[in-house]
């Protein structure tokens, strides 16, 4: 992890929505972080299933069906992303440059967009990997169910209460 002062890092981060055609670069970030931090908790079936979901073609298809992606960029390089599936679910949240508030800012921007489009949403849900539970708890999420495995993917259901 880079030892640069967090304030200096944050001054160099810009946020924006994904543009069609960026899916390959976004999925490269997702795969790098997943392989390093999340995949060790998954079996082979789960890893293959995750790759089927987190690939450029699937991401582009989901964006035509209403999902949206916000990006965090540092010096034009994607260092974080959040994909949100309306009405209330985080599909993917991956940050390569951790410890600088990037996930928190991506989440805040996604919540603003969701509430603009669907003001009655009161909870945001996520199926967290075991690795990410602590990070989601730091963002205010609470565990709402037992550890579950589907198609080899292990997850813990979590929710965040949001205010209007």
Summarize the structure in words.
This protein has 164 residues and is α+β, with helices and mostly antiparallel strands. Helix content is 38%, strand content 29%. It has helices at residues 6-11, 23-38, 44-53, 56-64, 102-117, 133-138; strands at 13-17, 68-74, 77-85, 89-95, 123-128, 142-143, 148-150, 153-161. Strands 1, 2, 3, 4, 5, 6, 7 and 8 form an eight-stranded mixed beta sheet that branches. The protein is globular.
Distance from N terminus to C terminus (CA atoms, Å) equals 36 Å
**The biggest beta sheet, please?**
8 strands, mixed
Our estimate of the beta-strand percent is: 25-35%
**Total helical segments:** 6
Mean of the pLDDT scores?
93
Shape: globular
Q: What class do helices, strands and sheet pairing give?
A: alpha+beta
Give helix % range: 25-40%
Number of strands: 8
Are there runs of 5+ residues with pLDDT below 50, and where? none
Helices and strands, in N-to-C order? Answer: HEHHHEEEHEHEEE
Radius of gyration: 15 Å
